[in-house]
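**Protein record**
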Amino acid sequence: MRAGDRLLDALLERSRDQAGGLRLTGEGPCPTCHGTGAKAGTVPRICPSCHGTGQESRNQGTFGITEPCHECRGRGMVVDDPCPTCSGSGHAMSSRTIQARIQAGVADGQRVKLAGKGASGERGGPNGDLYVRVHVKPHPVFGRSGSDLTVTVPVTFAELALGAEVKVPSHRGAPVTVRIPAGTPNGRTFRVPGKGVRRKDGTTGNLLVTVNVMVPQDLNGKARSAIEDLREATAGQDPREELLDRAKEA
């Protein structure tokens, strides 16, 4: 980054457009001398060594080297009577609050450039830029994969085996209904278009719904009897038979 640019880490909790205040603490123009570095009633003078350019050149054999002036330290001006507040630097620590608009769909770790919101330039030059690095706070329900949102929804064995229509949450919207076909395996993911994160081009990603069977911890007598009947009815089906055969062949 250029001199005068700043990098700030900010925490973002929402995925829609938002404008928030960012509190900055850093160097700014001295409030006493207004950045000149000179005591009240005096003004800096042009550096006699570099004639105000802030740079000096010296030869090293066949090469010429340009570096900041040793007398004015690159400022181009010399302060004979320094400001007592900033000791002639022209800078002082200050705090300020700026408004930053974060667009919807910003990714974790992405940098957002705020032009002209950085540190003040030397010798009255323009301010640098402020780069805000956004950290997206994890959501307790939804995950994210690019422009898609992900959610894991608990279902029963009966819903997967016989089929069902289940309601699943959507981010900042009404629940949506997902149709589960009969015989759906555990862990299958269903795609709900248009319920994800808004992209830069205005389109929206998908909501990816993964079904996960929840095994009941407490069974009453009727439920236990029904499951035992199911076990007896499917006793001839060994779901591990193919796995064991492949292991023998390997």
Residues 148-235 form a domain with the HSP40/DNAj peptide-binding domain fold (CATH 2.60.260.20). The first strand starts at residue 6 and ends at 12.
